[in-house]
Amino acid sequence: MKTKNKIQVFLVDDDKMFVNALKFKLNKGVENIEISTYFDGENCLQNIDKYPLLVVLDYHLNGDNVEAMNGMQVLDIIKKRSPFSEVIMLSSQDDIEIAMDTLRNGALDYVIKNEECYSKIKTILSQIENEITSAELIKNDSNKVKKITVIIIAIITLLIILSSII
Amino acid sequence: MDAISKKTDLTFLVELSEGSNEFVREMVEEFLLQLPDTISKMQEYLDDKKWIELRNVAHKLKPSLDFMGLLSIKEIVKTLEKNCVDQVNLELVPGMVKEIIDTCSIGAEELKIEVLKY
Description:
The complex is a heterodimer of chains A (166) and B (118). Helix content of chain A is 52%, strand content 16%. With 166 residues, chain A is α/β, with parallel strands linked by helices. Chain A has a single domain, classed as Response regulator (Rossmann fold, 3-Layer(aba) Sandwich). Chain A has a 5-stranded parallel sheet, with helices on both faces. In chain A, strand 3, helix 3 (71-81) and strand 4 (86-91) form a beta-alpha-beta unit. Chain B is mainly α. Chain B has a single domain (11-117), classed as Four Helix Bundle (Hemerythrin (Met), subunit A) (Up-down Bundle). Chain B has 5 helices and no strands. Chain B has helices at residues 11-17, 21-47, 51-68, 74-86, 93-114. The two termini of chain B are 18 Å apart. The relative contact order of chain B is 0.18. Chain A binds chain B through residues 14-18, 20-21, 24-25, 28, 60, 63-64, 92, 113-115, 118, and chain B through 12, 16-18, 20, 23, 26-27, 30-31, 34, 56-57, 59-60, 62-64, 66-67.
């Protein structure tokens, strides 16, 4: 079952080749996804009012420009301005301190940039998509129950009116 | 050139491509496009002894090494990063930069031929 709106995903990384590869992998075999790419945190935040479902954010965003915001600063602002956006923090370092910090600051997961990270991020995205689909199914079922209840009440009311006339 | 002496190996990139030659071609072309600027920055920061900036350029190169299969210099890049950040064994850094630049340059020449297959 497809969701009505496309799932908005932001990829934020200053490494163009990595972004291209991740975008290619996430798009593969999936129709219900719209990926926006940003090469710095500032541009990502300018578009955060699109309320992306998932933001894949590089920890080391200020490599080229020391004035630029780093991943933790961007994460902090995302969680304030779009609290329902899930954030996956990316890092080249297997650093438990950084990992704990990002999770404490609201990131959903911390993923090391290596050969496995593409399939790992795709799996996380699929899980989020499945959760949305399940929520929509529950919502649809709930709507059906409401409609049936209204019809039954209408029939009973009609029967009562008819019986009083007869 | 035989496979053993080759610096590059596109196996990972081809696996990632799931059969899309266009993707492989685009990624190799992007690497070839970015490499001159990367080499120039590394050399400039080395000459100016700007260790943190040099570390940052080396750091950013790492995913490209995976894509292009330039795996023989991955450990050198990691050591270079560590030395620059910790400001230790800096006398070894010029040799590391040379090894990285030389290997990437040879790799680039290989890739210019290899990419024609895709």
